[in-house]
Amino acid sequence: MNQKILANILLISTTILWGTSFIITKTLTQTLPIFLYMTLRFSIAIIGFLPYLYHFRRIDKKSVVGGFLAGLIFFVSMVFQTAGIQTTSAGKAAFITALGTIIVPFIAWIGFKRKINIRIWIALPFCFIGTSLLLLEGESGIVIGDFLVLGCAFFYALLIVFNDKYVRLVDIYVFSVFQLITISLFSIISSIIMNESFNFSTVDYSFWLIMIYMSIAVTTCTFIFQNWSQRHQGPSETAIIFTLEPVFAVLFASFILGNETMTLFGWLGCLLIFVALLITVIKKQNNKN
Predict the structure, then answer these.
(1) In the prediction, which pLDDT does 104 show?
(2) How many structural domains compose the chain?
(3) How far is CA 281 from CA 11, 54, 123, 272, in A?
(4) What's the domain range around 24?
(5) Could you give the CA distance from residue 77 to residue 97 in angstroms, rounded to a whole number?
(6) What is the pTM of this model?
(7) DSSP state for residue 52 in the 8-state scheme
(8) Given this model, what pLDDT does residue 285 score?
């Protein structure tokens, strides 16, 4: 199979798995402290890389340093998202996170002087109006969680650009493990500092099945899928495919795994953001013709 086609399939699979994570994370962290949740999720995810231990024969400084820096960016992004989702809906969080797609070209422009296509500028008003409607959606109006998730969108866009530079230079399995180790260490340190606690004797096997799913499927598999795929696909194309994530997130949060609802303003905001994301897709299609 053509490597770009396989990369696209794996990236789409990643968006589906991520789409399930919003409502599951929101549900779990209603009782499980945030940093303890992240510690469990990313520590268990490391176990999923055991079949790839032989790759550690290729360990080098770039893999360690790159994995640490990427892990630190990912950690900050996850903290913003997990904290933000406490006071906003999973569906809203997904669409606000998706704004990272629009942020990617600006980071690439500032950091690497890559020219911004005119269609990105066309998409910006849709993003601005759509985000404004989402932020004002609901009786509670503007909530701190919405702005925390915006922070997540920025740091995840930064991660996409950073990964694009690094995954082509290192062994992706070693790189991914050091990302996970970094996230796990920062999570457990933060949990200790925040003096978090949880009575694990009150949970049953279903809790651990969900944690294994979030760790192995949503984390280990998506790390491998994304890092491998970004070796064969560019950051803008990757960001475009990730526009499917909020769609899947809303489907899972509102109709499949949860029963969240949004007002008309919220749905209109989601639609405008999705239109902005589609504009970037059209841009890429036109460039290929």
Answers:
(1) 86
(2) 1
(3) 15, 38, 11, 14
(4) 3-288
(5) 10
(6) 0.87
(7) G
(8) 44
DSSP 24-49: HHHHHTTTS-HHHHHHHHHHHHHHTT
**Which region holds residue 113: left if phi is over 0, alpha if psi is between -120 and 50, else beta?**
left
Residue 48 φ/ψ, nearest 5 degrees: -65, -15
Specify the pLDDT at position 109: 86
Which pair of structure tokens corresponds to residue 209? 């099945």
Q: What is the pLDDT of residues 37-89, one digit of tens each?
A: 999 999 999 999 999 889 998 899 999 999 999 999 999 999 999 999 998 88
In this prediction, the residues of the chain whose per-residue pLDDT falls under 50 are 284-289
Q: What is the DSSP string of 66-88?
A: HHHHHHHHHHHHHHHHHHHTTSS
Instruction: Give the span between the Cα atoms of 112 and 219, in whole angstroms.
Output: 29
